[in-house]
TrEMBL record:
Entry keywords, A to Z: Plastid, Ribonucleoprotein, Ribosomal protein
Entry keyword annotation includes Oxidoreductase: no
Biological classification of the source: Eukaryota, Sar, Stramenopiles, Ochrophyta, PX clade
Source organism of the structure: Pseudochorda nagaii
Molecular functions per Gene Ontology: small ribosomal subunit rRNA binding; structural constituent of ribosome
Alphabetized Pfam families for the sequence: Ribosomal_S18
Region described as Disordered: spans on this chain: 1-23
Family label: Belongs to the bacterial ribosomal protein bS18 family.
Name recorded for this polypeptide: Ribosomal protein S18
Signal peptide segment: none
């Protein structure tokens, strides 16, 4: 019978976790703003969808700010809701 101390369901027990590389550093009082259209466009796909947190490498707080800013910019017609891709 295996020793219960050595068996674990966690795959990376004892291994160091990877640190996320942030695409840009924010100062403590700085936020992602809806008026920064060029930055917001880099975080959306060619169809206008918001990229996932896994692909953008943002923290959870930054991803929430990003999605709120993109939605505000869409509402104010600074960003398109959907872009049409021509064949």
């Amino acid at each position: 019978m295996p020793n219960p101390e050595n068996t674990s369901n966690r795959g990376n027990k004892g291994k160091p976790t990877k640190t996320r590389r942030q695409p840009f550093k924010l100062k403590p009082n700085e936020t992602i703003d809806y008026k920064q259209v060029d930055i917001l466009l880099s975080f959306s796909t060619e169809h206008g969808k918001i990229k996932s947190r896994r692909s953008t490498n943002l923290t959870l707080k930054q991803q929430r700010q990003l999605s709120k800013s993109i939605k505000r910019a869409r509402y104010l017609h600074l960003l398109p809701f959907v872009t049409s891709v021509e064949n």
